[in-house]
Amino acid sequence: MSLNNKNLLRNKAYINGNWREASSGNTYDVKNPVDDSVITSVPDMGMEDVKKAIDIADQKFEEWSSMLAKDRSAILNKWYRLLMENQEDLAILMTKEMGKPLKESRGEIAYGASFIQWFAEEAKRIYGDVIPHHADGKRIVVIKQPVGVAGIITPWNFPLAMITRKVGPALAAGCPVVIKPAQDTPLSALAAAYLAEEAGVPAGVLNIITSSSSSEIGKELTTSDKIKKISFTGSTKVGKLLMKQSASTVKKISLELGGNAPFVVFEDADLDEAAQGAVDCKFRNAGQTCVCANRILVHEDVYDDFVEKFAAKVKKLKVGNGLETGIDIGPLINDDAVKKVIDLVQDAIDKGAKIVAGSNEPDGRFIDPIVLTNVDDSVEMFNKEIFGPVAPVYKFSNDDEAIKLSNKTQFGLASYFYSRDIGRIWKVAEQLQYGMVGINEGLISTEVAPFGGVKESGMGREGSKYGIEEYINVKYMLMGGL
């Protein structure tokens, strides 16, 4: 791999400032999803290793949490700078292990680094309160303290940003972390850990466990009484299991789970802007994001015009190896992901849907972006997260129907709609049962705003001033005898 900084390609896990093999000596291969070629092998760690990492992090809690906030801030700011200085190498590494186009990988490095920069500043702004006292001779003070060691479990689709979005606030608040990156994409996490070490994060404060057994490691993190906080991004099914396991020790927990995002185009929308917004929202990362448009709902009066504009843009997208110039869509992560997408499309075709762009015949793990029309809420993909480059376009007749169809799901992560009517904008935005709403905008993620969902899309928020609260306990102190 042609990296300027060769140190970024790590093939060992990171515990207590040391690069380690698994206690068992076992390893597993990390492969490029384009062709299954082996990039490197990493330790396949087990219970003994994760327990060691938890013990070390627990021992480091007092030291890290008692450090002056401005000193933790300085370390995080240096980490941010190192991430950005190595942006190109980190992007190449990410594209190799995950497959997304290089231009998107560069964007993710900048996005991921922005959380470290943001929370470097928030570390100095964890304010308490003085509350007006309720009786003479008494005073009420509220302080905020770090919750303790945090267990971080992240997915493969954003190998760096899903880590920094959690680790940034944890370290800023004073919480050491034990990180379990996705089995498929551990290399971005290990490279980030190397740069964190270079930035001065003390040994034992940031630890990374690589393992092919997510369930085993997850269970240990959720049931250990030394882990005080769990943060997970992934499927709703796994999130429910982790939540159940965490109940045994009543941990603080935040979950960012599945999505089923509606993208609504009203009859007064700017159709050119809406079509481009739908392309940006749907096909980023080959549709493998939890906030991708999953159901495109278009008013019947503009349905045909929108489909024509949208399909024309989709047909221009270039599919291929993410390291090649001009690529818009890379491969899906694995064969199971391809099968799921193809099965969902076939189900829709069997129920009368028509393909107006793309093809349901994959080339290995590459799928041409597909636009489907003549679909309704009977198709499986109406209720399932597609996680691939497929855009079903549904039809609606009025505002109430659009809102009803949008909310007809157990999920509530992201939603989008296009309209120029200010009254409609307020009505729809307030009635959509989602944690995030994009209005005349298909890309909504930023470090300055709270990211998270409602219903079965999870709990808690990441990013913004609210994100650090997930790693903090509030303590009320009553002083008497004054």
Automatic annotation (TrEMBL):
Annotated ranges, domain Aldehyde dehydrogenase: 19-476
A Pfam family matched in the record: Aldedh
TM segment ranges: none
GO MF entries: succinate-semialdehyde dehydrogenase (NAD+) activity
Residues the record marks as active site: 256
Keywords, in A-Z order: Oxidoreductase
Keyword Nucleotide-binding carried by entry: no
Protein's GO biological process: gamma-aminobutyric acid catabolic process
Keyword Oxidoreductase attributed: yes
Family per similarity comment: Belongs to the aldehyde dehydrogenase family.
NCBIfam families, per the entry: SSADH
This protein's name: Succinate-semialdehyde dehydrogenase (NADP(+))
